[in-house]
Request: fold
Amino acid sequence: MKLYIVGNGFDLSHNLKTSYTEFRLYLLEHRDEVYTDEDLIISKGDILRNFERYCQPNDLWSDFEEQTEKIISEISEGKIIIFEEEWSCKLDIGGERHKFIDFFKKLIKKQDSTFDTDIYHNEIQEYALKYFNNKVRELYIWVPYLYISFQEWIQTIILKNTKNIYEIDEDSSVISFNYTNTMEDVYQQKDVLHLHGSVKNLEDVVLGFHSPEIDDKLPGLETSFTKEFKETQRMFAEQGSRKLNSNKFYDENIGRFYKPVNLLKDSIESFVKNKNIHEVIILGHSYNKIDWVYFKELVRCAPEAKYLFSYYSQNDKENINKIILENKFDIDCEKIHVDNFKIKKD
Reply:
């Protein structure tokens, strides 16, 4: 069986508008469209301006994903001023939560010295944390709506009239790094793993960055993506339990642009397992370091297969050399210009 690995270059070669530049243009063209989130209003133009305050991606999709690390860092390390005092956006470092509640008690005492803040401690705690959550939400409301805008944008990418340009064997297996269904709708492939989710499963779309530094800085982030964690959260919610020891908005959005690599590696293993893969063909991939972890898992699962690394540019060839040498891949492999995989014209 052949296994095809396709990256964003595969879609671009079909003239699909899937580059970061196209996403940026989408936000610009719809910059006056607004989202209403309770008492807050934010436009797509605001979202783009906020994103580009932290990130300056080029046209490469991998570069866009790398840039999103800055969003994670910004929220995790961000500070917020409340009543002229500076606080961590996480509000859970070194007892800062308790300090903030005490701070709120003192403010109340200033307003009414006769008010017994100890009797109403629970009510004050709930109000203080809700107030804090709203302030952080005002500051970072653009983060979830950048993600939502992205989900909306990928739905605008049209496959109609797209022609197949590559010789793809029928009944092959495919691991796609793309959100489009090009392999299914244009090449009629049935066995496709969308590693980062797809336009047909928007809630499963993975967009962002992963690094050991993030895991060290934010322990527990990886496990927050597991089914077990989500099931536990659902059970707590059904029981009416509330988590008050950290900021709600922070909890919900710190992982918005985090890539749960270990879960994605598991999905590769499950997909490849029990398949007799004799040839792996990589098309339209930049071989950027951000994706090396997936290639390592693939080689581990299919070490005997022959690997055909397609390249489009000299930079692609250099990245292929890097991925093989630096990961010490002991595999049968070949570098082939991508045009050699295209359908031969008469």
Remarks:
- The first helix runs from residue 8 to 12.
- The chain has a mean pLDDT of 87.
- The CA atoms of residues 59 and 264 lie 25 Å apart.
